[in-house]
Design goal:
10 helices; mainly alpha; elongated; single chain; about 200 residues
Length: about 200
């Protein structure tokens, strides 16, 4: 036992961003850039920045999405959030599902950086856009993230409503139920915590 070296402390877990699915009509450039981001984030960042210099219209949203993913893979959370927000703003106003996904990615990056206020500012419109697009599953995921942002801002009581929304939209989502039970326990609502 004396000869054993002390164990190194494990690195703190890095919040995982959901892998953004490219839109069904995504061109080859977005797919190639996202694939590159998975293996070489620095090269993907450089590629996305070059793409942004020449991209027009919806292609700017795709280039910005890739830039955000590359920055997130490099754990440059603040820059990733800004890239996702810029991509959301470049998306067509009527492409509500894409705008919602990009806003959700921005919110997650902001949460990963510990910025609950920026996360909530991105997630609130993303949730509204997901609802308007008729994407209940995406709306449920965004509601979970909104609750996480509210708790991070010490507004735990306000997180109950988004978690109820998430449980309704995603009844099989274990995270929604676990966060709800944890929040109820934190708020002293033990009967509700046990029911969840």
């Amino acid at each position: 036992l004396r000869d054993r070296k002390p164990r190194a402390k494990p690195a703190p877990p890095v919040p995982a961003l959901p892998a953004p699915p490219p839109p069904a009509r995504a061109g080859g450039e977005l797919r190639a850039c996202l694939d590159l981001a998975a293996s070489d984030p620095a090269a993907a960042e450089q590629s996305a920045r070059g793409w942004l210099e020449t991209a027009q219209g919806p292609a700017r949203a795709e280039a910005g999405q890739c830039l955000g993913v590359a920055l997130a893979r490099a754990q440059a959370w603040d820059d990733a959030a800004a890239a996702f927000l810029a991509a959301r703003d470049a998306a067509a106003p009527d492409d509500l599902a894409r705008r919602a996904r990009l806003g959700a990615l921005a919110g997650n990056a902001a949460l990963a950086s510990g910025d609950g206020a920026t996360a909530l500012a991105a997630l609130d419109p993303a949730g509204a856009e997901a609802k308007a697009a008729g994407d209940a599953a995406l709306g449920g995921e965004i509601a979970i993230d909104r609750a996480r942002a509210l708790v991070a801002l010490d507004r735990a009581a306000e997180a109950e409503a988004p978690l109820a929304e998430a449980r309704a939209a995603l009844p099989g989502n274990a995270q929604a139920w676990l966060l709800s039970a944890t929040l109820s326990r934190r708020l002293g609502k033990l009967a509700e915590a046990q029911a969840q």
